[in-house]
Amino acid sequence: MKGKATSFDIAHYAGVSQSTVSRALRGSPLVNEETRRRVVEVARKLNYKVDKNASNLRAQQSSTLAVLLFEDPTSDESQINPFFLSMLGSITRACAKAGYDLLVSFQSSSNDWHADYAESHRADGIILLGYGDYMDYQSKFERLLESDTKFVCWGANVEGRPELTVSCDNSRGGALVAEHLIELGRTDCAFIGDTSHHSPEFSARFNGFAERLKAHGAHVSERKIATAISTEESGYQATKSLLANNIKFNALFGASDLIAIGAIRALQEAGLRVPHDVSVVGFDDLAVARFCTPPLSTVQQNTTLAGQMLVANLLNLIAKQGVDVASSVLPPQLIVRQSSK
Amino acid sequence: MKGKATSFDIAHYAGVSQSTVSRALRGSPLVNEETRRRVVEVARKLNYKVDKNASNLRAQQSSTLAVLLFEDPTSDESQINPFFLSMLGSITRACAKAGYDLLVSFQSSSNDWHADYAESHRADGIILLGYGDYMDYQSKFERLLESDTKFVCWGANVEGRPELTVSCDNSRGGALVAEHLIELGRTDCAFIGDTSHHSPEFSARFNGFAERLKAHGAHVSERKIATAISTEESGYQATKSLLANNIKFNALFGASDLIAIGAIRALQEAGLRVPHDVSVVGFDDLAVARFCTPPLSTVQQNTTLAGQMLVANLLNLIAKQGVDVASSVLPPQLIVRQSSK
DNA sequence: CGACATTATGACACCGGTGTCAGACGGGGA
DNA sequence: TCCCCGTCTGACACCGGTGTCATAATGTCG
């Protein structure tokens, strides 16, 4: 047998028509059980596999989802945010369970392909990760909506379409951190992250944090806020600049674990002890949080559940073409370790 | 316009035949420059995208590669080995650069789909990660070879086909660790990992390590070897069992960073100081190695280069159907940090 | 001005399945 | 015996492109 076997080959050897082969292999009730057995047996012997391209073409769908991971172009390209990688793992598993394949693509702002996967029929739907850090994300969303592309997004809100977003309750997470620091009596806080609308997740964390502090009579001074993207280096630099300006604080909230880890390095270099002089809390609960020095207190996001919901909501969207899907906001959980004792 | 535009729609509006549209959009020299401009313009206006399924079906290829990541079923399913994730990042980028899409799939030993992606024409070739830890990998390789599936593999050797493997020079990496410990005068070594053929990468690391020590008159006692898979917990347990048996050593080589990190935890719990009492060295240089307590000395594998070579070799294999591709063994690099000073 | 090469285009078969439709076949009831 | 119905199967159009072949239009040269 040259090349791969086709359904015509199977038909030939099983002594039936090609139509019957197709029906038999896909469990149609129209085919006689005895015939089916014969077809299945021949197919197995010839190691026959349905050609996905042909089947997708005819069926006008691809049984495939795509994940587009947006990377902040200002961050180091060689290191991918481990938080998204861990989400990727759970998305992959959820896809497999649903019988879908998963295409993975790393996007940078330079390319504009966001809808390509769907429009070229390579994927039935798209999952967006990291678009909260995308400068111009609302306009991207508009283009996706316009072309009727099925998509769901982690973190960033799609205006007027809450059902397209799965996110952590960032505001609540920030509040948990505030409560924890209040309990410790450490209310003179610095914040490293981003309070602007460019970064909806970081600013939600900050707002939840600041509001809860305020409710207790404390407040975060503008001077104690430094801007950083979600990398260790950026957190380090931002904290260093605070210290260089001789700004004092007894607690520090990093908008992500990577930022917090960088902040700890800057603090330690400046001779400050964590947590003795400064309590530090991060956000994400990356694996590394458990192992760093000192082990980092942080707010855990349930990436496993998040991945499952992204996939489930997207499939729902594809199946029901746009009917109501509930907004999905996941509860965060505070994990206290040595960095804030 | 209902639904997506097809090349016939473009043809209609541009006043040419469908054939010409196809040629024009794919840069055939057969079409008049003026005609091409018109076609391209109409296509852009109608937001036309080539249907990948149709094009793949006709061309009998998919412009897609698949990554199969094998997970040790005995390890915690929710946490994916960060080493492979980082490789995944560089593979994705290399694919994108070559104009290929990437399918990602996590395999467990229970499913037997290894060749499915290729045989169903979903992917032109397959990249195997983590198959060195696969109990029965040679038989899987045989099936892939038999079905003429194009594939390359990280780490594990395919018998008689060195061109299908890209790997780190694990033996040399082990030797680097040995040399480093010899310099420190720490030759009473423990090894945590796997010295059996079940884990070709770990055992190569061990062999390179042991041989170099032997050449210096030192030697690793059987009693100081404990078996572990590549997780923090497993490294912790293995080290704990050594200590429980009252086995002494002044250096420890963990076959991976995760193992070494678990080992450090076990040592510290037992009241041993790292590196004062025991020098610890790992393997991989995960991001976490820089941040753990104390920062971990380790052997760096160049995942960026590795990913690029896997993709390049695979594409080569697909293009030249089986002609010689050089075996690719990448040089490891010792990174000394506080854990072995 | 006719033979011939060159360029640009259209018609059409084809990739390998899926779904529809028509019809063969056997059995039961009138 | 004839008709009807349910069960099972085959023929065929179709999905949306790609590549081949034939041909029209234009230009070249003797």
Automatic annotation (TrEMBL), chains A, B:
Residues 5-59 form the HTH lacI-type domain. SMART domains: HTH_LACI. Gene3D superfamilies: 3.40.50.2300, lambda repressor-like DNA-binding domains (1.10.260.40). GO terms for molecular function: DNA binding. Keywords: DNA-binding, Transcription, Transcription regulation. The keyword Oxidoreductase does not apply. PANTHER family: ALANINE RACEMASE, LACI-RELATED TRANSCRIPTIONAL REPRESSOR. This is LacI family DNA-binding transcriptional regulator. It comes from Pseudoalteromonas qingdaonensis.
